[in-house]
Amino acid sequence: MSDTTGGIDPAGQTAERGRPGSGPVLVVDFGAQYAQLIARRVREAQVYSEVVPHDTPVEEMLRRDPAAIVLSGGPASVYAADAPQVDAELFRSGVPVLGICYGFQAMTRALGGTVEHTGTREFGRTELSVCSTGGTLHQELPDHHPVWMSHGDSVSKAPEGFRVIAETADTPVAAFENPESGLAGVQYHPEVAHSPHGQEVLRRFLHDIAGIRPRWTTTSIVDETVAAVRERIGDARAICGLSGGVDSAVAGALVNKAVGDQLTCVFVDHGLLRSGERAQVERDFVAATGARLVVIDAVEQFTEALAGVTDPEEKRKIIGREFIRTFERAARDLQEEAGQAGERIEYLVQGTLYPDVVESGGGSGTANIKSHHNVGGLPEDLQFDLVEPLRALFKDEVRRVGLEMGLPETIVHRQPFPGPGLAIRIIGEVTPRRLETLRAADAIAREELTASGVDRDIWQCPVVLLADVQSVGVQGDGRTYGHPVVLRPVSSEDAMTADWTRLPYEALERISTRITNEVADVNRVTLDVTSKPPGTIEWE
Ligand SMILES: Nc1ncnc2c1ncn2[C@@H]1O[C@H](COP(=O)(O)OP(=O)(O)OP(=O)(O)O)[C@@H](O)[C@H]1O
Ligand SMILES: O=c1[nH]c(=O)c2[nH+]cn([C@@H]3O[C@H](COP(=O)(O)O)[C@@H](O)[C@H]3O)c2[nH]1
Ligand SMILES: NC(=O)CC[C@H](N)C(=O)O
Ligand SMILES: [Mg+2]
């Protein structure tokens, strides 16, 4: 992925002990539930971090000049025939390594210690006893404190040269370290919120054992990304797909800062937008950034391409393709405008975030849940070079970068709206009439939610039109046979998981009454009370 990031690996996270490592902290993913969470916690300790799959060869990892490596947990048993292994070469490279759970066990095995299936299993909250020999990882922590466990195998003997620094009632080797070689491991999960001292343990490893200077701050993200983008784009020209959402606004602002008016932002009106969206984007973004913006009318093109299509993945792929065709058209127009002096526009900037990548099946061994139009929905014949400076980050991280760049709260705290727009909120074929119905219902819901002051409590509230479902109603003493809409209010930190928001009944009542009174084809309003997982936020 490094070739599409626009290069946000910060330089200079050097290990003070003269070890290599001006690159990121690499989290090696052994199929963990929490690999991204580890990377995120490392970034919270102000050290840049990215996840790599466990089958990445050691030489390839070392080529990135990692500041340290964290081996994640995973479902396998280290001694199973097909269990993913750690190449012992890694431990000879001098790069500091922290093993977590499976990573701890795999590290033990690679270094000559013993892992056993002892029959003891620990799941959930477990009390950790810090050994009297102390150790760097648990320095200044209480002698007994809770940690989160999830394992069936245990380390029964630490490798030679390692000091056991913690135990639990059932696990005699719950953590070890060899700080002189920059190596340490823990059986528990320091990355989860249920290990209340976990962040301190990670910090000890990164700052004290690995000797990395904490310098990944929003200021450094901005400076380093701007420098990397400037180097990547050089004198060339670029366009940025701008949606009015926070991700593309921040990506556009970063690139604008890097290359100024070599960048033109392109907003596509595909006819799948919400009411008033186009005008709002034209007004707010230009006012906030001064960047150059062109608006392309592609309503007819998208309407025709989507005619007759009902399958969600097919819709997403078509939308991804048509977005790119529209960007190509915009690039051609801009080149023609510039006349002979204008060179080909090679770069396309997108506000892609990590959740878009992982849901599109772009993580290591992760399933394709849905093809986000800007990742899994891209056509194979894509001619642009992608510049995606936020590709490793989560939205709350991006919001902090946006604030650092001085973008207004109206943009930074805007609720997300998916690129495929209302098309993935009409269950069934997308037609102009159905779009109009949904647009009207959505406008009412948004208006009422804002009026009841809950905008900042919810992540977003899609309104979904069940266009292929009809139900009988009675309105004005007459029978109606209309469509239901679904309200899907969710709360979330990063869209990877979400809960349904308990909205005030009064707000729900006003939304329901107004939609059924004011929107002709809708005679029923329902509420989606499903968390994610098992549901997703959007219905398609
Ligand atoms: N109407 C549009 N015109 C141009 N580009 C778009 C449009 N919609 C989406 N994109 C591109 O697709 C990317 C992904 O969309 P996505 O909705 O995830 O991000 P966003 O709109 O920037 O932020 P948010 O998630 O807050 O809505 C955007 O960052 C942008 O580059
Ligand atoms: O730009 C986008 N292109 C897409 O194809 C897309 N699909 C979902 N989303 C948004 O991503 C977040 C997670 O959504 P799901 O729980 O439905 O997967 C939610 O915020 C969704 O609104 C998209 N955004
Ligand atoms: N969460 C983990 O990494 C578990 C490791 C290993 N599968 C065990 O059960 O012990
Ligand atoms: Mg959006």
Features:
single chain, alpha/beta, Rossmann fold, GMP Synthetase, Chain A, domain 3, 3 domains, 19% strand, globular, binds adenosine-5'-triphosphate, binds xanthosine-5'-monophosphate, binds glutamine, GMP synthase activity, ligase, Rossmann-like_a/b/a_fold
Per CATH, which architecture of the largest domain?
Answer: 3-Layer(aba) Sandwich
Helix content: 25-40%
Which of globular, elongated, flat, extended, rod-shaped describes the shape? globular
Number of strands: 22
For CATH, the homologous superfamily of the largest domain is named as Class I glutamine amidotransferase (GATase) domain
EC number: 6.3.5.2
Protein name: GMP synthase [glutamine-hydrolyzing]
Keywords: ATP-binding, Glutamine amidotransferase, GMP biosynthesis, Ligase, Nucleotide-binding, Purine biosynthesis
Enzyme class: ligase
Structural description of this entry:
With 540 residues, this protein is α/β, with parallel strands linked by helices. The chain has three domains: 2-209, Rossmann fold (3-Layer(aba) Sandwich); 218-412, Rossmann fold (3-Layer(aba) Sandwich), CATH 3.40.50; 426-527, 2-Layer Sandwich (GMP Synthetase, Chain A, domain 3), CATH 3.30.300. The chain contains 15 helices and 22 strands. It has helices spanning 35-44, 58-63, 89-92, 102-110, 198-209, 218-233, 246-259, 277-289, 299-306, 312-338, 354-359, 395-404, 409-412, 432-451, 505-518, and strands spanning 25-29, 49-53, 68-71, 97-100, 114-116, 122-130, 144-151, 154-157, 163-167, 175-178, 183-186, 238-241, 263-269, 293-297, 347-349, 385-387, 463-465, 471-475, 478-487, 490-491, 499-500, 522-527. The strands form five sheets. A nine-stranded mixed beta sheet has the order 2-1-3-4-11-10-9-6-7. A five-stranded parallel beta sheet has the order 14-13-12-15-16, with helices on both faces. A hairpin with a 2-residue loop joins strand 18 (471-475) and strand 19. Helix 7 (246-259) packs across helix 12 (395-404) and helix 9 (299-306) packs antiparallel against helix 10. The longest helix has 27 residues, at 312-338. It is globular, with a radius of gyration of 26 Å. Residues 1-18 have low confidence and may be disordered. Glutamine is lined by residues 73-77, 101-102, 150-153. Residues 73-77, 101-102, 150-153 line the site of glutamine (GLN). Residues 216-414 form the GMPS ATP-PPase domain. Homodimer.
